[in-house]
Specification:
oxidoreductase; 19 strands; alpha/beta; 8-stranded mixed sheet; 6-stranded mixed sheet; N-(1-d-carboxylethyl)-l-norvaline Dehydrogenase, domain 2; peroxisome; 3-hydroxybutyryl-CoA epimerase activity; 2-enoyl-CoA Hydratase, Chain A, domain 1; Rossmann fold; 29 helices; lyase
Length: 719
């Protein structure tokens, strides 16, 4: 139960403790209890001052995020909370001091700033990360933080959602004292009594102006911040709403600023962005819950040592991810120069982190000491898991897995990092298929956050549970998927480049397509992405989808022509773009003859007349086939639940998180809209290519019944 408790000591200090395990999130019931106890303290003749502290050695991580899932957004936050903070926390009869340990984030910091002073411990983190959820600070943070740390730092903290640590907070003036944990409560009490007895000033941060920059400088800071927000947060309104509220406070005072903050908060909470980011927040945390695995009453076995076969970019990245998180690694190669190169890559990955200040040299040395290099299987009895990261060759992988079955313990989990090959084929020649699965990392493996765990019909629940547990240890977000061509991520996105190539064959400019898709929120357009990956890789991977899904693919000559002319992308200096020595892209006129040849082969372009498509048309033409394939993946049970595909799309291909992931975005558009648009596009390209746009049964059913795609698979469309 969320509540507070109050104790009045013989010194006249009322200690109000926030109580909502585990971290004291600010549930509405807790806030009501806090304000009730504050009112009681102000009316109690025994009380001289008040200290607010958190239970379980933590102050508060902020407002209870679960509340954001209710109703229309915003969690029910309204002006009454700010009124209470002003009346009984900041401006009541008795002074208040926040005693902070652990974290004071979001609403937690806003409550602390509402107190007349703040005392914290050395390890405390303080910040306002609300913009990560598509809203703005709503408990006075837009007004009080600038008055405590200055406008420039406050804007930086809010727009980047970056917390600061106790020493910086003390230097900036956000906290008044930093003391050891064992002294925290006593120090806060003494500080509170000093204020009550006139030895220290009582500060009301809402009306302070001494740390605000002069008006002209403040306005320049806000103008610059708006320009930066427009550049770095394309398509997002809530950073500007935050800045608007801050500006009112700067120009018209804190009280007016609070009113503006309330209006801006309500406007942000009503946006789809807020709903999308809250959805992704919870979806990320639900991928580790898998039906038939995490609810089967099993306990995960600890994986202490993992062997990795192959020391290339992928294998060395996987080893780096392991040793960075305390897991011993064995790196096997077939020749000494290859092994030395692989070990060198791991060492370079660690050195890069040292250079960036992400770890110390001593920690890097300790991580490197966890790696054992080998040219044979002599160390493999130590391994609890093996991750094969060899070439994409079925025969080679089958040979390796037969060798692994003999070299490893009978309880060792055998995984492959393949992105294209059927997992059953990889383990087909072993008698260990119950402990064979795919562990598909994304490159660079020590940086990219997603791990696609590919199960077969033979994979045991225990093996899946153990692999899920390892993903947590190495700080990856896992998505358990079924075994099919491309698994979940690559399969869902195969229409992405195909649709873009179809548009070019119809007469559209590839540079314009890239610009539009970048504007939609993707990290780069499909043609810039092709150059990054390599058109040779794209052609190889594309063949798998052409063979597996021949009824709904588009085969353009664009990619084959690039391969024929050795325009493989960045690595050869040219592809859809040309590249300088620093791999900066620019248009290349030499691409135009290849585009013309592809268009002649396709026969889709109107002579001298490019298709009249708006940016919205281009986005729909490219993404609606991707959504359609995503619906097939949901209907076939390739993912455990639709939101898993949302997480995978955001964390792999960079689908904008503020759109909620692929299926959430589809629901924002509506299934009926998607089906109508797909059928219109089919009409544009004619019967030969209409299959590319044919709505799947799951999508068509949702359009007919008006149901949400995120709801899961209706009985009528289970495959």
């Amino acid at each position: 139960m969320a509540s507070t408790k109050m104790e009045v000591g013989p010194d006249g200090v009322a200690v109000i403790t926030l109580c909502y395990p585990p971290l004291n999130a600010l549930h509405p019931d807790l806030l009501r209890s806090l304000f009730r106890h504050l009112s009681e303290a102000h009316g109690d003749g025994r009380v001289k001052a008040v200290v607010v502290i958190g239970s379980n050695n933590n102050f508060s991580p902020g407002f209870d995020i679960q509340q954001f899932r209710k109703g229309s957004g915003g969690g029910g936050i309204d002006g009454s909370i700010n009124d209470a903070i002003c009346a009984v926390l900041e401006g009541g009869a008795k002074p208040t001091v926040a005693a902070i340990n652990g974290v004071a984030l979001g609403g937690g910091l806003e409550v602390a700033m509402g107190c007349n002073a703040r005392v914290c411990t050395p390890g405390t983190r303080l910040g306002l990360p609300e913009l990560q959820l598509g809203i703005i600070p709503g408990f006075g943070g837009t007004q009080r933080l600038p008055r405590l740390v200055g406008l420039q730092k406050a804007v930086e903290m809010m727009l980047t959602s970056t917390p600061i640590k106790a020493p910086a907070a003390a230097k900036l003036g956000l906290v008044d004292e930093v003391v050891p944990l064992e002294q925290l409560l006593d120090a806060a009490k003494h500080h509170a009594l000093d204020i009550a007895e006139g030895r220290r000033p009582r500060n009301l941060s809402l009306v302070r102006t001494d740390r605000l920059e002069p008006l002209a400088e403040a306005m320049a800071i806000l103008d610059f911040s708006r320009a930066q927000a427009s550049k770095r947060a394309r398509n997002l309104q809530h950073p500007h709403l935050c800045l608007d509220a801050i500006q009112v406070g700067v120009t018209d005072g804190g009280i007016a600023g609070l009113k503006a903050e309330g209006a801006a908060f309500a406007a942000a909470a009503a946006l789809d962005t807020h709903k999308a980011l809250v959805h992704i927040f919870f979806a990320q945390r639900s991928t580790k819950k898998v039906r038939g695995v995490t609810d089967a009453g099993l306990s995960p076995r600890k994986i202490k040592c993992v062997a990795v076969l192959g020391g290339g970019l992928m294998g060395s990245g996987i080893v780096t991810a392991l040793v960075l998180n305390g897991v011993d690694a064995i790196l096997k190669e077939i020749k000494q120069p290859f092994l030395e190169a692989g070990m060198g890559r791991v060492r370079a990955n660690l050195a890069s982190r040292v250079k960036k200040g992400a770890m110390t040299q001593a920690d890097a040395d300790a991580a490197m000491a966890r790696v054992t290099g080998t040219l044979d299987y002599s160390h493999f009895k130590r391994a609890d898991m093996v991750i094969e990261a060899a070439l994409e060759d079925i025969g080679l992988k089958q040979k390796i897995f037969v060798e692994l079955e003999g070299a490893c313990r009978p309880d060792c989990i055998l995984t492959t990092n393949t992105s294209t090959i059927d997992i059953n084929l990889v383990g087909a020649k072993t008698r260990a298929q119950d402990r064979v699965l795919g562990a598909h990392f994304f490159s660079p493996a020590h940086i990219m956050p997603l791990l696609e765990i590919v199960k077969t019909e033979h994979t045991s629940a225990q093996v899946l549970l153990d692999t899920l547990a390892l993903s947590s240890v190495i700080k990856k977000t896992p998505v358990v998927v079924g075994n099919c061509t491309g698994f979940a991520v690559n399969r869902v996105f195969f229409p992405y480049t195909m649709a873009a190539c179809m548009l070019v064959d119809m007469g559209a400019d590839p540079l314009l397509i890239d610009k539009v898709i970048l504007g939609f929120g993707m990290p780069m357009g499909p043609f810039r992405l092709s150059d990054l990956v390599g058109s040779d890789i794209g052609m190889h991977v594309g063949k798998n989808f052409v063979e597996s899904f021949s009824d709904r693919v588009y085969v353009s000559q664009l990619i084959p022509l690039l391969n024929q002319h050795k325009r493989l992308g960045e690595k050869t200096g040219s592809g859809f773009y040309k590249y300088d020595a620093k791999r900066r892209a620019s248009p290349d006129a030499e691409l135009l003859p290849l585009i013309d040849e592809s268009r002649r082969s396709a026969g889709l372009a109107m002579p001298g007349k490019p298709p009249a498509l708006s940016p919205k048309d281009i986005v729909d033409f490219i993404f609606l086939p991707v959504i359609n394939e995503g619906c097939r993946v949901v209907a076939e049970g390739i993912v455990d639940k639709p939101e898993d595909l949302d997480v995978a799309s955001v964390m792999s291909f960079g689908f904008p998180a503020y759109r909620g992931g692929l299926i959430f975005y589809a629901d924002l558009l509506g299934a009926d809209y998607i089906v109508r648009r797909l059928r219109a596009f089919a009409g544009m390209v004619g019967p030969k290519h209409a299959g590319f746009f044919e709505p799947c049964a799951y999508l068509a059913d949702a359009a007919r019944t008006g149901s949400k795609l995120e709801a899961g698979v209706p009985a009528s469309s289970k495959l």
